[in-house]
Amino acid sequence: MSNTSSGESTMPTASQSKISESPLFRELRESVAKETVAFTFACGGTIPIVSSPLDTAEDVDGDKLRATECLPIDLRWDPNDESVLSSETKLTFPLEPNTEKNLDRLIKDTVPATFGLGGEHVYDESYRKATKLDPTRFSSTFNPYELGIIDAIAQTLLPSLRHSKQTRSVKAELYKLNLYSGPSGKFKTHVDTPRSPAQFGSLVVCLPVEHRGGALEVRHKGKTVTFDWSNSEGDDKGPSIGWAAFYSDCEHEVLEVTHGHRLTLTYNLFCVRGNGQLGGNYPWLDPTHLPLYKTIRSLVQEHDGWRDGGYLGYNCSHVYPHTSKTNLNFLAPDNLKGADMLMYEIFRSLGLKVSFRPVVTDLRYYDPETGEDAAPVVGLKLEWTTWRFPRDNVEEEYDKWTGKVYSNRRRYYWRSDSESESEPEPTREPGYIRFEDVHWLNNFGHKEPQISWVAHGNEPAGVTTYSCCAIIAEIPSRGSQETGNKTVQSP
Ligand SMILES: O=C(O)CCC(=O)C(=O)O
Ligand SMILES: [Fe+2]
Q1: d(Cα 279, Cα 479) in Å, to the nearest integer?
Q2: Report for 116-125, 267-276, 435-444: range of highest mean pLDDT
Q3: Quick one: where's region Disordered (predicted)?
Q4: Alpha carbon of 66 to ligand 1 centroid (Å)
Q5: Residue 364, number of CB atoms within 10 A of its CB
Q6: In degrees rounded to 5, what are phi and psi of residue 29?
Q7: Ligand 1 centre and the CA of 46: distance in Å?
Q8: Closest ligand 1 atom number to CA of residue 115
């Protein structure tokens, strides 16, 4: 295999290239494409509001099961005019008769809702027509934890991974009260700005105020889920709250509100470390029942092309701050979402060693080993890095970044045809992976800034190279599978 530190041949063997041509591998690529689209990226529901708790069903031990209904919700806020009585800055949902005056006051007390554009807060009604209150100006008795909403989100969007050391759970932080009013309240297609690298999603809760239109559409990889909490004519469903949660990188849109007022509370959702396995009831993602698991298992365990081992590579279908250098950096695998966590779990369930790697698909750089522009390339570490020319020896930095180390590297700023001496054999960091040795299960998608090249000189210049985040599984060679002897270490 290609990742010893002795500098032996790294060319894929004939048997390895057979893998990519096999019908099983093709089937797997098709399944991965389907799975990345089909996997849940949003969830939601409605919860009826009742005036007093209904008889809650009991389980066999006489314990009350979780409430599936919500008691009336109080909302209070700070008025613009401090002389207003507190009885006038309060609403109870479902709205009681004769509270139109208070609703009107709430509408007047909200302020125009901006949105982020190029690092600035912009107000533009053709893009977002809404008003808002910051959480310092209002409070409500609504609690998404009590109603099981946060558990449902954790189970659906962020189940704990069997192969992660710790369980993960969801923290919801109240973010805004928003009001979209007819006839033209809306928020055109956008993605929310994560407040920290630990933020994985958003939760929207719609309070029961009469309105038409205003459906929330959430999209991922060409698929759309619609949450419509409007009231249609003659609707006698009774008051309820509607909720929807979705991953931060999903595009979403609030369609035009044609009548009435669409009043929502929004929450930022963060991934936090859990307290461990709670009574064995913690929601686990079990990938072994899925067809994709079986196909990968067959390919890994039955295909004879792995005699010398090799790699399977999967490009994350969601966006992560994978090159972030902050303390709260990308905590892979803790932050994995949707199909990405599924792929990670499948690889780990098969006992494969897994690493998270940056893949730069367009690094224009001469590689003396192959005599080619070395693109694309798999990096050793995810963190964003800066190379300063001429202070840093960029060739050396490049070698370190790829995990290929030349003991006696000749400097190549430009390749000239007259340069014929051969480069010394490189040694390799443990975990060095050549792009060509990976059997890629899907195409490359979102990219994050990975390497900044800063040149000082007569003409100062800066260039940024971008990387995708790949999950790479190492298939050990047949010999080492039998002896359990792993030759490669992932960082
Ligand atoms: O109110 C909604 O349904 C979504 C609002 C939204 O997208 C946002 O506040 O960023
Ligand atoms: Fe949003």
Answers
A1: 41
A2: 435-444
A3: 1-22
A4: 28
A5: 10
A6: -60, -40
A7: 17
A8: 10
pLDDT at position 296 is 93
**From 6-10, 83-87, 235-239, 309-313, the region with the lowest mean pLDDT:** 6-10
Distance 194 CA to ligand 2 centre (A): 10
The interaxial angle of helices 291-302 and 338-349, nearest 10 deg, is 40
What is the CA(258)–ligand 1 centre distance, in A? 17
Residue 415: pLDDT over 80: no
In a domain, 296, yes or no: no
Structure ipTM over 0.90, yes or no: yes
For residue 248, the ligand closest to its alpha carbon is 2
Contact 265/177 with Cβ under 8 angstroms? Answer: yes
**Same domain (yes/no): 80, 151:** yes
Examine the pLDDT at 370 and tell me if it is beyond 90. no
Which one, of 413, 414, 395, lies nearest residue 405 by Cα?
A: 395
What tens digit of pLDDT does each residue of 203-217 get? 999 999 999 999 999
> Do 268 and 307 have their domain in common?
no
Alpha helices in 93-202 (DSSP H): 100-109, 149-157
pLDDT in tens, 88-106: 999 999 998 888 899 999 9
Q: Which of 43, 132, 263, 264 best tests ligand 1's pocket when mutated (most atoms within 8 Å of CB)?
A: 264
Going by pLDDT thresholds of 50, 70 and 90, the confidence category of residue 36 is confident
Note down the domain range covering 352: 14-22+303-412+425-483
393 and 252 fall within a common domain: no
pTM of the predicted protein model: 0.76
Residue type (1 letter), 238:
G
Instruction: Give the count of domains, the chain.
Output: 2
In-domain check, residue 359: yes
Which ligand is in closest contact with the Cα of 216? 1
In the structure, which protein residues have their CB atom closer than 6 angstroms to any atom of ligand 1?
A: 178, 187, 192, 204, 216, 252, 254, 264, 266
For residues 243 and 363, membership in a common domain is answered with no
Shared domain check, 340 and 246: no
Q: Are residue 356 and residue 211 in the same domain, yes or no?
A: no
Q: Are residues 243 and 323 in the same domain?
A: no
pLDDT given at position 365:
65
Q: Is the peptide bond before 79 cis (omega within 30 degrees of 0)?
A: no
Closest listed ligand to the CA of 257: 1
The two tokens of residue 48 are 């009826």
